[in-house]
Amino acid sequence: MAFYTQKVKFDDLDTVLRLNKTKGLSLEAVLKNFFSEEIRQQIKESFAGLPPFTVAEALRLSNAEQRMAALGCFSPEAVAQQMAAELKAVLVDKKTVQKKQVRWDAQLKPYQYVFEDTYELYKISGEALNLPNAWYERPDVYYVKCQCPSTKRIYYIYVPMEVGQQKDALAAIAWTMRFDNQALTKEQYLHLMYAET
What we know:
It contains ten helices and eight strands. It has 197 residues and is α+β, with helices and mostly antiparallel strands. The termini are far apart. The longest helix has 11 residues, at 76-86.
C-alpha cells in the first residue's frame, strides 16, 4: 500500500506519520488525511510512540523527491542545528564585512546606515552523510550561512565542493550570486557590494 505526504508517495505509513510529526502536526490533524477506519486505528495506536524524522534520515533517503519532501518538513534553522549536531557540520571560515547604505528617516532626510554582514562556511563530512556516489567516494558537502540585511532571515545555501575547498566564506557567498549566468568571484562580489553601499 502507498501513502502520501506533500503529494509524494512513500511505501510505509510510519515514515509518513514521522514526517507529519516533524512538521508539528497533531494526531487529530493527521487523522483528517486518512479515511480507512483500519488505518486510522493503526495511526491512533502508533503515532505517539513514533519519533520525529531527523535531517540525517531525510538526507539519506535515496529517492530525490522523497528527500526534498522530507527536508521541507524542517525550518532552515532546524536543518542547520541538526546538521551541526548529528552530522557534525564544521565551521570552516567566518568573515564579517562592514557595509554602509544611505537611508531616509521619517522626515525623508538621508542618513548613513552602517551595519555588518557575517558569512559562515560550513563543511559536512561525506562519511557522516553516508551518500555513496558512482565512484564509491563520499565527497564532503559545503554550505554558506548568511542573513538578508532587509528581512533579517537567515539562509543556508549549498555551494559546490570546489568552492568550499577554497575555505573562504566570501568566495562561497560570491558563488551564489550570478551575472550573465556566471558565478561571481570574491573580488567581483566585494566590488559590487561596496558599489552598492
